[in-house]
Amino acid sequence: MTFETAIDLGRDTLLLAFKLGAPLLLVALAVGLIVSVFQAVTQIQDQTVSHVPKLIATLLATLMLMPWALGELVDFATRLITNIPGSL
């Protein structure tokens, strides 16, 4: 394995991790913003009010995005395995 191949593999792996993690982080960010506005308007300052909705929304987003995420992982693994003979 050459130095360039290792760098390309690391770059592709990081890009895939960002691609898979970004939608979940955006969902948590949006729900957190909505809950924060709700807490500011109603003056409820309980910690569980902010954590439980984010947890539920992230879980639902994970379940909804699971087929897409698994497809991306399978494509990456397939590319990785098919490129093994060329990298030796």
Average pLDDT works out at: 91
Q: Unreliable stretches, pLDDT < 50, 5 or more residues?
A: none
Classify the secondary structure makeup into a structural class.
mainly alpha
Elements, N to C (H/E): HHH
Number of helices: 3
Largest sheet: none
Binned strand content: under 5%
**Alpha-carbon distance between the termini?**
5 Å
Number of domains: 1
Into which percent range does the helicity of residues fall?
over 70%
Instruction: Give the strand tally.
Output: 0
Shape: elongated
Verbal overview:
With 88 residues, the protein is mostly helical. The chain has one domain (20-87). Helices cover 91% and strands 0% of the residues. The chain has three helices and no strands. The mean pLDDT is 91.
Question: What would you say about this model in short?
Answer:
This protein is mainly alpha-helical and 88 residues long. 91% of the residues lie in helices and 0% in strands.
Descriptive terms for the model:
single chain; 88 residues; mainly alpha; 0% strand
SSE layout:
Blueprint: H1 3-42, H2 47-82, H3 84-87
Helix pairs in contact: 1-2
